[in-house]
Amino acid sequence: MEALMATDAIIHQSTARFDGEEEKTGYPVDFPTSFPVKHRKSSEREILKDFLVSLICRKHRFFVELFDAMDKREKATKKQRLERQERWRAEERAQRVAFQNAMILVTKKLVVKACRATPLQKSLKNHFPTTFPGKKAAKKRSKN
User: Which of 4, 28, 79, 95 is the most buried (most CB within 10 A)?
Assistant: First the structure.
């Protein structure tokens, strides 16, 4: 934590300067802050390194958590979609079974109704339609 505070002080030392005053870091007002890292003291480099490492670690954790959350959300969405599709399939199966049962019942009713309408023992008149007067045979087809 001290490293972060010291790094923040180094980074922000150019702000709020007054002539002849030293800031909280202990550096004089005219202390150069824009020279390259290789010319800085080793303690400053360590502080900056620690700051950058902690910043990178925080960003890494942030993105790992973000990607994990996105992955969990995607899996939950996929699970919901699959459950919804399974419910639709079950509903379609139930409707198909109900329709088939209804068709079976209607067919049975029609068969029973047709059986009641026709007599069980048919007479000879009903077997062969009369095509010629006085004959009880079916009409022959021509060979043409």
Answer: 4
Q: Residue 22's pLDDT is what?
A: 47
Rounded distance, CA 18 to CA 49, Å? 29
Sign of CA dihedral 25, 29, 35, 41: negative
- The region, left, alpha or beta by phi > 0 then psi within -120 to 50, assigned to residue 18 is beta
Total H helices, total E strands in the chain: 3, 0
**Four-CA torsion 55, 56, 58, 59, nearest 10 degrees:** 120
For tokens 């026709």, what's the residue? Answer: 118
Band (91; pLDDT cuts 50, 70, 90): very high
Rounded to an integer, what distance in angstroms lies between the CA atom of residue 119 and that of residue 108?
18
- Name the least confident of 35-44, 46-55, 88-97: 35-44
pLDDT of residue 6: 56
Name residue, tokens 């202390």: 31
The domains of the chain are located at 1-34, 43-119
